[in-house]
């Protein structure tokens, strides 16, 4: 290794020869804040305030798999002096995604040239717009708060307004536009006492306070970052000359928060890349003595704006980073347009086993905000190999455990759980029927003939939304997703509904000479042996179908089905084959590994060529 490093140093020496570099000593390299293997001091043609700028070119032990760092050796220039200058003088010359040829070091010349040009442009003030375009990168240097700040506020609302905030014992503060959405989030995150713990919950809810979000236009230049309450007030006066008093009143109310020793005010800005959030943290609030509203000292009921400004003008302020946790950001950083169209839709999922549970999570990750989960079964050890839940949830009801998991991971969703047998006669005539009427799409993942037939009957009787059926054939080597609009007969058309073959497929994709189910030593104990990987195709197909239905609605909806043909080689290795009936009717899938869509015209399943 030492010989390899010496070879690298010699190569770079030759490359840098035109720049008259000096190789750094071991002591000089160790003085750097990060671990480096070697470095060079290079005189640049750039001057800053009359001093020549010297650069360090430094390589890490990961070289050549990491581009060398370029740092300003002298004079000392602090971050925020100009854009792209990081701590310890490091210059952000190339983006992290920039790729170079690792076995040819000649790119180092280009790196140095770009560093010099960056310095020249920055010192001449040509890059000042970068402070605004990449605001959050520079805001981070101003932030000294150790608070963790979560923001649920609607980023599309550009109006300065009152918001609500809750601080937990871990010093995490969560902001929301209204109290209900904040409480929902906190409940899903298990951050509030249970409703059963009346006094504890009442006390926790009482600690929810009001704060403010002040919506500015263009981001601040680093030279504008406020250091005192007076400077922050000046920024408000400059931006909102006609609304200053109203905003200061909001600020006053936030500063009087008895539950926070360091009140936090949200600020938002508009950049070319979209909105961004920060926070202003006051070193102290207006409560200076226990159980006494010092804000009112000397005043009977309120404090004049002028006096309030005087009281906060010397209070130190500093910045805080804000984590957006609202659904728009979490579901695609504001660019998931599909989410905007489906966020208010509701999907009912009948069966939360290996099929329904995975689809539920995919739908939530795609932006579905409202789920109804139906399942009366419990999770057992033999389920976890192909279920999204694990042994942590053993012996819990599948619907309840899945609902709790989704609520914790995605606190902005609403999950209604129905852990009883949904087909109960009483349920049919009352509660469950009423709940299913709310659903925009119903997804059946039970693979249970009687459950599916009851769903179809309810759909016809009460004109429910389209039902999507998702199931697999033996060994999950063929997967089916069927869209069944009301009274379409799509699902039943592919099954026998009479004779001794009731419930079996009329034309299955796969053929097996022998029974594929495996027995276990229990009454009616049997299962289909397959793993989770083949199921992923079904999960993806069904999720895609549900999302499409939420987007297009029911108008002129034609029943259709998607089929996934898995590996023909695996099928044969398990002593199976593509069925003769399928090959004669729809063609030979051969090696498989593809998806096909068929449409139901009322009598036959056909390809449709638009």
Topology overview:
Layout lengths: L1 H15 L5 E2 L2 H5 L7 E11 L2 E9 L9 E6 L32 H17 L5 H5 L1 H8 L5 E4 L9 E7 L4 E5 L2 H10 L9 H9 L2 E7 L13 H11 L4 H12 L8 E8 L2 E9 L22 H8 L4 E8 L2 H4 L6 H6 L3 E5 L5 H11 L3 E5 L23 H12 L4 E5 L6 H5 L1 H8 L2 E4 L4 H14 L4 E6 L5 E7 L5 H4 L16 E3 L5 E2 L6 E2 L7 H18 L7 E8 H6 L2 E3 L1 H7 L5 E9 L4 E2 L4
Parallel strand pairs: 5-7, 5-11, 8-9, 12-13, 12-15, 13-14, 15-16
Antiparallel strand pairs: 1-2, 2-3, 3-4, 6-7, 6-8, 9-10, 10-11, 16-17, 17-21, 18-22, 19-20, 21-23, 23-24
InterPro entries: D-isomer_DH_CS1, Prok-E2_B_dom, ThiF/MoeB/HesA, ThiF_NAD_FAD-bd, Ubiquitin-activating_enz, UBQ-conjugating_enzyme/RWD
Organism: Paraglaciecola mesophila
Protein name: ThiF family adenylyltransferase
| Spatial shape | globular
CATH architecture of the largest domain: 3-Layer(aba) Sandwich
Find the count of extended strands (DSSP E, 2+ residues): 24
Distance between the termini: 64 Å
Which blocks of ≥5 consecutive residues have pLDDT under 50? 291-296
Instruction: Report helical residue fraction.
Output: 25-40%
Q: Which structural category fits the helices and strands?
A: alpha/beta
User: Could you give the order of strands across the largest sheet?
Assistant: 14-13-12-15-16-17-21-23-24
Total DSSP helices? 21
pLDDT averaged over residues: 91
Largest sheet: 9 strands, mixed
CATH superfamily of the largest domain: NAD(P)-binding Rossmann-like Domain
- For the record, what CATH class of the largest domain applies? Alpha Beta
Computed over alpha carbons, the radius of gyration is 32 Å
The fraction of residues assigned to DSSP E strands is 15-25%
- Give the domain tally: 3
CATH topology of the largest domain: Rossmann fold
